[in-house]
Amino acid sequence: MQAPDEDTIQLLPHFACRLAGHEIGPDETASRLLIHLALEAGRLSRSAMAARLWPDLDPMSSAKRLRQLLWRIRPEARSMVVIGADSLRLADDVTVDYHAARSLAQHILHAVPSELHEIDPLIVRLLSTELLRDGHDEEIMNERYRWDRLRLLALERLATTALELGDTESAIVLATLGSHVDDLAEIPPRVLVQAHLMRGDTVTAYRTYLDYGAVVRRELGVEPGPALQDLVARLR
Question: Quick one: which of 53, 88, 166, 179 has the fewest CB in 10 Å?
Fold first, then answer.
């Protein structure tokens, strides 16, 4: 939970910026600057930032644009940025929701099963949320891909653990969320088939298999893997 007076940058699923609990609206270029600093989670050289914000300009022109931006940026947004001679970074007291979500996902991947018995709904909500849904910069799209891979692995771990513990309801919810992240990944439908079979719902189990098979044949030209085929072989 964030404190009401925290300085925060939200990246999930859209960009928002709050200073002392009040939302501020920097202009589009300033927003992109804050987004790239938040994604970097550290220092970013001025030259790299200028190239990201104005990729079509030569280094001298983009550097000039960056100096102008830092000079005219709104005071409330400027307070969130530490401006060095050769680099930029977020101020230490600025929190970023994406950093917390990424840490939670990594913790899930390394936690022992007993720690995953009861999962806070807030964690599930974070793992089911896209990163900067409307962002189109190359760095944003690359980071979105990395986040999707990480949150898919975390959702798969949670779903598999829930299945092992006999919690079929949670397994179905978590595996369904995983399928929404990547409808070609095989572990989520495999968990779904197993969970439905454990509940005695053979029709839904087989339908899940057929739906997944149709997707991978259409998109990849392949059949579901042997482990998934073996689960439904006796239902045919």
Answer: 166
First vs last C-alpha separation in the chain = 49
What is the domain range of residue 68?
7-92
Residue with tokens 């896209």: 130
pLDDT in tens, 195-219: 999 999 999 999 999 999 999 999 9
Look up tokens 């100096």; give the residue: 67
Task: State which of 33, 67, 92 marks the end of a domain.
Answer: 92
Does pTM top 0.85 for this prediction? yes
Q: How far is CA 127 from CA 14, 102, 156, 158, 192, in A?
A: 15, 9, 11, 11, 18
- The C-alpha atoms of residue 171 and residue 148 are separated, in whole angstroms, by 19
For residue 195, which phi and psi values (nearest 5 degrees)? Answer: -65, -45
Give domain status of residue 51, yes or no: yes
